[in-house]
Specification:
Elements lengths: L4 E2 H9 L4 H16 L3 E2 L33 H29 L10 H28 L12 H7 L5 H29 L3 H31 L4 H12 L10 H6 L4 H4 L4
Parallel strand pairs: 1-2
Helix pairs in contact: 1-2, 1-3, 2-4, 3-4, 3-6, 4-7, 5-6, 6-7, 6-8
Length: 271
């Protein structure tokens, strides 16, 4: 078809947008093109830049320098939501980088590449919607994304796996995103205790959908492990120890992780 598009090029176009509104809008446009059947998965593609485009704000500082505030104050709740927005903004790029960087990777069976792209385009579309959900809530509180400093730890961790699809799957969805399953219920409870049920409901939407994102990571990690004839549990532990600094932090949300097909034998020895 004359109007078909290279999905890896479209994914790179999301990464190239620095303005948050432009990035989220482009993410939705690319997802619509993909779902309309107007895209192809090429046989090969150039790797995307290691650093996607970013807005001038928020200012990025060291993780330990990001201030912590109590949720029983409005500034404290704004700070929490701003941190969530920053995570979701990075998560948009993580999903589209997964497509741009790895859709043609030899670790994937050729017949599985369309399904791989389908999963991660869907994840990226979700993350863009999550970002808008949180920034809309920030606007209700007379705040916006960029008002507060943030850190680049999430993207730094992802870039440690830029040359390996198995490692990226192990670290990004199965360590970093799975961590969200552990901490979000507590955040929801604290917001409810502070009387902010609207913000709590925003996090409930994100939490429910993040289970599916972790499940996508688990599914594709098992796929590449089978292709490599590796035991998925042992290989996961090896890759995490090689590519993720610091151990995993308990307590773990074992119920949500199990829903995502990430049973305790994957992570219980990595604390």
């Amino acid at each position: 078809m004359a109007d078909t598009h290279d999905i890896t090029a479209l994914a790179r176009s999301v990464l190239a947008r620095g303005d948050p509104a432009a990035k989220t809008g482009r993410a939705h446009e690319v997802a619509q093109l993909w779902r309309a059947g107007r895209c192809i998965v090429p046989d090969s593609a150039p790797r995307p830049d290691d650093q996607p485009a970013r807005p001038a704000h928020p200012v990025l500082i060291a993780p330990g320098d990001v201030p912590r505030r109590r949720l029983n104050t409005v500034p404290g709740r704004i700070a929490l939501l701003h941190a969530v927005a920053h995570i979701e903004f990075n998560a948009i790029d993580l999903a589209f980088d997964m497509v741009a960087r790895f859709a043609c990777d030899e670790a994937l069976a050729p017949e599985a590449r369309h399904a791989f792209v389908d999963d991660w385009i869907g994840v990226g579309d979700d993350e863009a919607r999550h970002f808008r959900l949180i920034t809309d809530r920030l606007a209700d509180m007379d705040a916006q994304y960029g008002d507060l400093p943030a850190h680049n730890g999430l993207w730094d961790a992802a870039m440690a796996t830029r040359d390996s699809l198995p490692a990226r799957l192990a670290v990004a969805p199965l360590v970093l995103e799975a961590r969200g399953l552990d901490v979000t219920p507590g955040m929801i409870d604290r917001l409810v205790s502070a009387g902010d049920t609207v913000s709590a409901d925003c996090l409930r939407v994100i939490y429910a959908e993040e289970v599916g994102h972790v499940a996508a990571g688990a599914r594709w990690f098992r796929h590449v492990a089978a292709r490599a004839q590796r035991d998925p549990v042992d290989w996961f532990k090896t890759l995490v120890r090689q590519h993720f600094s610091g151990g995993l932090k308990p307590p773990f949300n074992a119920e949500a992780r199990l829903k995502a097909d990430l049973p305790p034998e994957f992570y219980q020895d990595l604390t």
